[in-house]
Specification:
globular; binds adenosine-5'-diphosphate; ATP binding; 32% helix; ABC_transporter-like_ATP-bd; alpha/beta; 7 helices; nucleotide-binding; 234 residues
Length: 234
């Protein structure tokens, strides 16, 4: 079963052209899939549909077989999301933020501490745990958002333009960390690899470790396949 499967996906905000038109693609378990498309291609609309914030005009998104519109609880339990808008409180420390979000997920205190420590270590943020989010640079903030998105141990991570506002070294570092999540070198008890859907408008964020590329243009999937073939076509 794919980690994410979009089929026949259409969305109209009303008015002019469709934001998404018959989009179909899959994100396979443990794969790093890059959703590549210029501004206005429909990437954010796709994220809103995949997370249940919007209902599709037609088609469906399934997360590990669960339709997000029909079984949102089951689908959301398997999914972590890093939206473009930050979710962490700037005036709380990284640790305070993560404890708060762990509590929202109903994770007990001891288990929360264990998971938070593990995520901070694998995202190279352990030394920042006691700092206010406001004091972190952009790259560290993004990694703290990723730690937040992983607390409930999802097997699929969606990131909407996670490198916006970062300089090139910070971008490379962020990509490297997310590829490492996919490669399953993390601390997950069951060794499960995390599938990633990484949305970007920057073709140079496709690198040799990218398993799959989906090219979105004007609401349609223009190409889908292994990274070298698709980036040559894009
Ligand atoms: P088609 O639509 O003809 O299946 P694709 O390029 O989407 O063309 O798929 C080509 C091959 O890649 C197929 O074997 C398919 O199972 C596989 N595939 C499709 N999507 C993914 C993905 N996200 N990750 C890995 N393999 C995929
Ligand atoms: P991307 O994230 O790739 O930049 P979007 O999903 O934001 O693309 O946009 C896809 C299309 O939908 C664009 O034509 C955009 O103008 C339109 N759109 C996005 N959000 C809204 C909205 N809330 N209301 C009306 N149109 C929208």
């Amino acid at each position: 079963v794919p980690a994410l499967e979009a089929a026949g996906l259409r969305h109209s905000y009303g008015g002019g052209r469709m934001a998404l038109e018959d989009a179909a693609f899959t994100v396979m378990p443990g794969h790093f899939t890059c959703l590549l498309g210029p501004n206005g291609a429909g990437k954010s609309t796709l994220f809103a549909l995949a997370t249940g914030l919007l209902r599709p005009t037609a088609g469906h998104v399934r997360i590990h077989g669960h339709d997000i519109a029909l079984e949102p609880g089951k689908a959301l339990a398997r999914m972590g999301v890093v939206f473009q808008q930050p979710t962490l409180d700037l005036d709380l420390t990284v640790m305070q933020n993560l404890r708060y979000f762990a509590a929202l997920h109903g994770i007990g205190r001891r288990e929360a501490n264990r998971r938070i420590e593990a995520e901070l270590v694998r995202l190279s943020l352990y030394e920042r745990a006691g700092e206010k989010v406001r004091a972190l640079n952009g790259g560290h903030r993004r990694r703290a958002e990723i730690a937040r998105a992983l607390l409930h141990r999802p097997s699929l991570l969606l990131l909407d333009e996670p490198t916006v506002g970062l300089d090139i070294p910070a971008r490379r570092t962020l990509i490297r960390h997310v590829h490492a999540l996919c490669a399953g070198d993390g601390t997950g008890d069951d060794g499960d690899r995390i599938a990633v859907l990484w949305a970007t408008h920057l073709i140079d964020e496709i690198d040799p470790a990218t398993d799959h590329v989906v090219v979105l243009h004007r609401g349609r999937v223009r190409a889908s396949g292994a990274a070298p073939a698709v980036s040559a076509a894009a």
